[in-house]
Amino acid sequence: MLTIDILTLGPVQTNCYIVAHEDGNCLIIDPGAESEKIKARLEKKGWTPLAVLLTHAHFDHIGAVDEMREMYDVPVYVSELEKDWLGKPGLNGSGKYPIIADMRIKEADLLISGREQKLVIGPFQIQLFHTPGHSPGSITFGFRDAGFAVVGDTLFRGSIGRTDLVGGNHEELITSIRNSLLTLPEGTRIYPGHGPATTPAAEQRTNPFL
Prior knowledge:
alpha/beta, Metallo-beta-lactamase, Chain A, 5-stranded mixed β-sheet, 22% helix, zinc, hydrolase, hydrolase activity, Metallo-beta-lactamase domain-containing protein
């Protein structure tokens, strides 16, 4: 049995997700900022991280990556298409905004290729969907048995991800949403990088961009 815990962190209120197995192990997805808050939640729940997973490598999703890696000695996974983004402010977006310090994160430990369809980490069986458009290497992490998916900034409740950043592509984004997310079982809980959860059925019915 899996549970999902949500922390909304940092200046742009990015959702960090902790997916926990009943055995006490967990995965941290998109630790965007405020590492101490993440640590406090893990200690409160008594969960042990096995890995950090990144839906993509924009600055607001990676700010606490190095702290999590050092605190828990766990590997960091990112798409091979964005392996250089962690350390380059011009790619991860931190260089775009003067009020944000340039962000240079250490290289990921493990790369996910666009060909992979499954990732196994301890007790976690994770479906992988390459969902480019918001960024070239955007990945959706699906947890089919638990009925939810973490989609990063690909799809939001009533909206879609922006495509005006490096490597963004509107047509690719719409294709990713239609082919990978809206084809999930209609009641699947879709957890986005910002804002509340939704479902494929709700977005099919009400999303003005689709």
